[in-house]
Design a protein that fits this description.
single chain; alpha/beta; Rossmann fold; six-stranded mixed β-sheet; 25% helix; binds zinc ion
Length: 218
């Protein structure tokens, strides 16, 4: 038996930038917060250098004229490579940096055993008093990201926006979301609260649990 999720994966193009694609497959899946009818795989844009560079270039064009100062990119979901390329794009674009080193920091928070984000002493200078953008792979409710925003503010960072590969929300709290893909790029995309999921109500079993690392079949 093959892996039916992998075999059903299809390529989807970004409405705004046809050079960038993600993979997705329809079905019945659970994230930590919701049930969704697509499993979205953005791995290629995170792990292939050429695709991460393209994604960074496209994100830069979304940020230009909207975000003027960036000192630090805080990466969640193993987005550091894309974060590095985005920093490079922003530096080439002459985005303003307030810090005396005149370069952008790319960092990620640690998640402790009770799933709280934190920054250790050695990383805190990259956050405290810095102009920060947050980079995530996919957002369906924004709940995880809003925890990260609280953490960054706790450590004294000033947040200037959230960047993502895929997002169904255009704001997290009062922060604008700059995203390469939205639910409009995936025809019929829907997310449900677990207790209101129509698949569950029809007793259709969940296929997999999904998160930023991938899927695990049930
Ligand atoms: Zn369900």
């Amino acid at each position: 038996m093959g892996d039916s999720i992998r075999e059903r994966m299809m390529k989807f193009y970004s409405e705004g930038d046809g050079s960038i694609t993600i993979n997705a497959c329809q079905g019945h899946f659970a994230t930590s917060q919701s049930h969704i009818n697509y499993y979205i795989d953005v791995t290629r844009l995170k792990v292939r250098v050429s695709e991460a560079k393209e994604a960074a270039r496209s994100l830069r064009s979304k940020l230009m004229n909207r975000v003027t100062t960036v000192d630090t990119i805080v990466c969640l979901d193993s987005m550091e490579m894309l974060g590095g390329f985005l920093a490079n794009e922003l530096e080439k674009a002459d985005i303003h940096m307030n810090n005396m080193h005149e370069t952008i920091y790319v960092v990620h928070p640690e998640e402790n055993t009770i799933h709280q984000f934190m920054f250790r002493e050695n990383i805190r200078p990259a956050v405290e008093g810095k102009q920060v953008i947050v980079l995530v792979d996919t957002m369906t409710t924004g709940e995880t990201v809003s925890k990260a925003l609280e953490c960054i503010e706790y450590y004294g960072g000033i947040i200037n926006g959230v960047c993502s590969i895929f997002s169904t929300v255009d704001k997290v709290g009062n922060q604008d979301v700059f995203t390469l893909f939205t639910e409009k790029d995936l025809p019929g995309y829907a997310a449900y609260a677990p207790n209101e999921c129509p698949f569950c109500q029809k007793k259709i079993p969940l296929e997999a649990m999904v998160n930023g690392y991938g899927y695990s079949k049930l």
